Amino acid sequence: MATSAAPTPEALVADLVLLLDLEPRGNDRFVGRRKKGGSGRVFGGQAIAQALGAAERTVDEDRHCHSLHCYFLRGGSEDYEIDFKVERDFDGGSFSNRRVVASQQGQPILNLTASFQTTQHGLEHQLPVMPAVPGPDELKSDATLRRELSELLPNHYRDRLLTPWPIDTRPVEPRDWMEPRKSDAVTHSWFRTVAELPDDPRVHRAVLAYASDMHLLSTSTRPHGVNWYRGEIKAASLDHAIWFHEPFRADEWLLAVTDSPWAGGSRGFNRGQIFSADGRLVASTAQEGLIRLVEPKAKG
């Protein structure tokens, strides 16, 4: 039986751009598309990026998003589209503020607030220096790492792991997911789309928002040597924040530096700094997530 050819990098990125685009329905309402071939829970980064896109479509193009804050309320289902309703809370001389409710089947799954600003000039400084780490060309690609992991896992994990992704993530400290060792709660990962994106800055912000949910929550598990694939923990994002500092391109290498200064009460707190390859701090992120230990089932 002939098998279908794997999608090209350009097709993967085109599908991502389409996924993060929205269909307007009037009265500041929008619909976010389903992920092609998706089955399961909606990836948090998708809901964030689509909610940001809904907010952006209600402000003037000369106002760019400089920060967003959101709460995950319920797990979304990839069986349904996502409905977005935007409230225009404020439009001032320099700033605008928007609230977005994302819903499925009449139930809210995410609330987002975003702030927008016209381009202005003022005092400038950058305190963090990009860490000196190996470059992306020295590291294994995301596809290679997932293929190696898939060979160690039961069959029901393999299809998802072997599905091509539109974003190539290259961790500096790749994790042994089968026998994770306790390590510092710090990670460094390069990422970019696998093909070129359109020049629209809103597309690049949407892709960074999408990818930012890939680098945070697992950081708070590193000091504890626990493993998702062995069913030792349940985890879910509770909230998410992004501050956009400077222009960037998400189809050029970006370095995500994450740390987790605290965990407790079945929650883990994580922070991130995202640098361009030339050392500019282009965004900062933060997230608290649920990390709940799973009690082993008694053997009967």
Q: How does the SSE layout of this entry go?
A:
Layout: H1 9-20, E1 22-26, E2 29-32, H2 44-56, E3 63-72, E4 82-91, E5 95-104, E6 107-118, H3 142-150, H4 155-162, E7 167-171, E8 186-193, H5 201-212, E9 233-237, E10 239-244, E11 254-264, E12 267-276, E13 281-293
Antiparallel strand pairs: 1-2, 2-4, 3-6, 3-10, 4-5, 5-6, 7-8, 8-11, 9-13, 10-13, 11-12, 12-13
Helix pairs in contact: 2-5, 3-4
Protein traits:
300 residues; alpha+beta; Thiol Ester Dehydrase, Chain A; 13-stranded antiparallel sheet
Q: Specify the CATH architecture of the largest domain.
A: Roll
**What distance lies between the first and last C-alpha atoms, to the nearest angstrom?**
44 Å
Largest sheet, in brief, is: 13 strands, antiparallel
Radius of gyration in whole Å, from Cα? 19 Å
Q: At the first level of CATH, what is the class of the largest domain?
A: Alpha Beta
The residue ranges in which pLDDT falls below 50 over 5 or more consecutive positions are: none
Q: What name goes with the CATH superfamily of the largest domain?
A: Hotdog Thioesterase
Question: How many strands appear in the DSSP assignment?
Answer: 13
Query: How many H/I helices?
Result: 5
Relative helix content: 10-25%
H/E element order: HEEHEEEEHHEEHEEEEE
Percent of residues in β-strands: 35-45%
Secondary structure class reads: alpha+beta
